[in-house]
C-alpha cells in the first residue's frame, strides 16, 4: 500500500455513488489540521488519530465545496458522530492509507454512508462476532471466505452508519444480516430485529467496489 491510495479510494467511491453526491479523498499521512472547534472533541489524542481526524474534516470540506456548499466545520456530537451543517447529509470514513468523505443535500438523499477497509481476510476470531449463522453458512460456499467476510464486515459498518442518524441506536453486528449479489458488487443489509424507525425485515441496499487492495462500500438512499 502506498500513500497514493487515497486516489484509488476516490475512484472506487466515485464509481458507486450517485452523481448528486460529492465525494473527496485525502491522504491521512498528509499535513492536515482540522478547525479548533472540531479538534476540541479529541483532546489529548495521539498524533496518528489527530492526522486521521483532520484528514476526514478536510475531505468533508472539499466535498462541500464540490457540492457548492460553504466549507463549514463538522464537529463531533456527544455520541461521537459527525454533526453536519444543515441542510447537508454526509459521511466520513478512513483506513490506514486513505480517508473519504461524501456529502449531499438532504432534499435529495435520505441516507448516506461510506466505509473503507483494506481488502484482507477478516480475522478468524471476529467471524462469530461479525457474521450471523446464515452468513457463516454462505461463507462456506465462497472460494475466499475470509475476504468475503471482510466485505460483509464493511457492508455492515456502512449500513449501520447510514441508519444511525435515523435510529440513534447502538447495536451489534448480529442486528444486520448481509446478502451479497453473485458478483459481489451489491449488497442488502436486512434488520434481524426491530430498531425504530426500522422494522424487522427492513432492508438497506448498498454497493461495493474493490481494487488495489481496498474495499469501499456505499449506501445512498434517495429522499
Pick out its properties.
single chain, 223 residues, alpha+beta, five-stranded antiparallel beta sheet, three-stranded antiparallel beta sheet, 6 helices, 8 strands, 32% helix
Strand order of the largest sheet: 4-8-7-6-5
The number of strands is 8
| Inertia-based shape | globular
Low-confidence stretches: none
Short description:
This protein has 223 residues and is α+β, with helices and mostly antiparallel strands.
Write the layout of secondary structure elements.
Elements (H helix, E strand, L loop, with lengths): L4 H12 L5 E5 L9 H4 L7 H21 L20 E7 L4 E7 L3 E10 L8 H4 L2 H7 L5 H23 L8 E5 L5 E6 L11 E9 L2 E9 L1
Antiparallel strand pairs: 1-3, 2-3, 4-8, 5-6, 6-7, 7-8
Write up this protein.
It is a single chain. Helices cover 32% and strands 26% of the residues. By secondary structure, the protein is an alpha+beta fold. It has a five-stranded antiparallel sheet, with helices on both faces. A three-stranded antiparallel sheet has the order 1-3-2, with helices on both faces. The termini are far apart. The mean pLDDT is 93.
Amino acid at each position: 500500500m502506498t500513500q497514493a491510495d487515497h486516489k484509488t479510494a476516490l475512484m472506487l467511491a466515485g464509481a458507486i455513488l450517485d452523481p448528486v453526491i460529492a465525494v473527496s479523498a485525502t491522504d491521512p499521512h498528509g499535513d492536515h489540521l482540522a478547525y479548533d472547534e472540531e479538534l476540541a472533541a479529541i483532546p489529548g489524542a495521539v498524533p496518528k488519530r489527530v492526522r486521521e481526524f483532520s484528514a476526514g474534516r478536510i475531505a468533508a470540506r472539499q466535498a462541500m465545496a464540490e457540492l457548492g456548499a460553504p466549507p463549514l466545520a463538522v464537529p463531533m456530537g456527544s455520541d461521537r458522530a459527525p454533526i453536519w451543517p444543515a441542510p447537508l447529509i454526509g459521511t466520513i470514513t478512513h483506513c490506514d492509507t486513505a480517508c473519504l468523505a461524501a456529502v449531499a443535500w438532504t432534499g435529495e438523499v435520505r441516507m448516506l454512508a461510506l466505509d473503507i477497509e483494506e481488502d484482507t481476510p477478516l480475522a478468524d476470531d471476529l467471524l462469530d462476532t461479525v457474521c450471523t449463522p446464515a452468513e457463516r453458512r454462505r461463507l462456506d460456499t465462497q472460494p475466499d471466505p475470509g475476504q468475503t467476510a471482510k466485505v460483509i464486515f464493511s457492508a455492515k459498518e456502512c449500513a449501520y452508519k447510514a441508519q444511525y442518524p435515523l435510529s440513534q441506536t447502538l447495536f451489534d453486528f448480529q442486528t444486520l444480516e448481509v446478502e451479497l449479489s453473485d458478483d459481489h458488487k451489491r449488497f442488502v443489509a436486512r434488520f434481524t430485529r426491530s430498531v425504530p424507525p426500522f422494522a424487522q425485515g427492513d432492508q438497506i441496499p448498498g454497493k461495493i467496489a474493490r481494487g488495489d487492495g481496498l474495499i469501499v462500500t456505499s449506501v445512498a438512499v434517495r429522499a
